[in-house]
Task: inverse folding
């Protein structure tokens, strides 16, 4: 996708993320690759970004804007920033509770811009849920928070995507024991249905094929390794087919992600978080993108976390944020074309 392909030239809105993490650094480094990207602005503390650029010797001029419409015109010369001040100066690798409300406000602002059409999409930098809990943040992660901001009609579904694989975990930010306990046929059907619709609308795939992973080793081995695949997963596959969705499974998860298998489907519906994320991050850690399906606005995010251990060292790589920006612009373009 070319940089000029963002719908109506509305910029992408990039959130602050956890100020003690690597979000600011990767945003600055992404701007250095601006010739490859559509215009974007960052909702962040402008002074913080200038300080990071100076300390890490990243040659990026930071310019404050008051409205998103200013961003495309200055994007070639400076990184546009909608100033979201931090109450306390951030320290790399050390989250400060007093800054948590500003992190949440940055996300809320990006969503408002996207819903109004002032931004083409929301691209979120990684947050630290633990750092946010003290300010009343009660959501397990970005996906659930964005669903609440979207309203009652939204069914947010988390997808991780890279060039070689798309995966959707049915259960997300819960323990493995809780994931198994709460997994049921309806949840699988709902996640797969949202995925099927999104692959058509957001990725331009006319007839998606979904692989439904089994829960147990060898997809239960005919009941020898558990009854869940026969009693929960298989009925979900049957229901999806009855709805006209092209799906197969339960597929043994130990072979589902081999190269030959990956070429045979458009997305894998996985039963729990790590079943989905381990193969994708193994294949393409830097290029993996987190996409929230089922929202009335476009949202992507880098596939990595806050990386407190390398924050402030200059070692953070911007590849995943660049991939998230590209994917956000591509999805926004698909949605815009569908409305014509």
Result:
């Amino acid at each position: 996708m070319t940089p000029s392909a963002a719908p109506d030239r509305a910029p992408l809105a990039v959130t602050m993320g956890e100020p003690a993490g690597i979000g600011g650094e990767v945003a600055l480094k992404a701007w250095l690759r601006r010739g490859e990207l559509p215009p974007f602005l960052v909702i962040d503390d402008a002074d913080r970004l200038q300080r990071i650029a100076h300390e890490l010797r990243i040659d990026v001029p930071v310019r404050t804007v008051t409205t998103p419409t200013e961003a495309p015109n200055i994007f070639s010369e400076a990184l546009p920033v909608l100033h979201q001040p931090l109450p306390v100066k951030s320290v790399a690798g050390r989250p400060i509770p007093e800054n948590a409300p500003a992190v949440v406000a940055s996300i809320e602002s990006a969503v408002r811009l996207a819903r109004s059409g002032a931004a083409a999409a929301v691209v979120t930098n990684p947050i630290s849920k633990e750092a946010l809990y003290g300010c009343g943040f009660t959501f397990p992660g970005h996906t659930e928070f964005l669903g609440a901001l979207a309203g009652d009609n939204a069914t947010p579904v988390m997808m991780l995507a890279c060039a070689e694989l798309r995966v959707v975990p049915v259960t997300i930010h819960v323990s493995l024991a809780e994931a198994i306990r709460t997994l049921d046929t309806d949840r699988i059907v709902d996640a797969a249905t949202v995925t099927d619709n999104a692959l058509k609308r957001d990725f331009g795939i006319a007839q998606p094929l979904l692989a439904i992973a089994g829960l147990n080793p060898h997809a239960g081995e005919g009941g020898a390794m558990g009854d869940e695949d026969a009693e929960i997963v298989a009925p979900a596959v049957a229901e999806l087919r009855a709805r006209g969705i092209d799906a197969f499974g339960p597929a043994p998860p130990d072979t589902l992600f081999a190269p030959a298998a990956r070429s045979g489907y458009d997305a894998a519906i996985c039963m729990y978080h790590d079943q989905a994320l381990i193969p994708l991050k193994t294949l393409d850690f830097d290029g993996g993108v987190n996409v929230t399906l089922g929202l009335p606005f476009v949202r992507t995010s880098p596939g990595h976390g806050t990386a407190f251990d390398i924050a402030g060292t200059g070692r953070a790589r911007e590849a995943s944020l660049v991939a998230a920006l590209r994917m956000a612009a591509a999805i926004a373009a698909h949605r815009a074309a569908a409305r014509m």
The first strand starts at residue 12 and ends at 15. DSSP finds twelve helices and twelve strands in the chain.
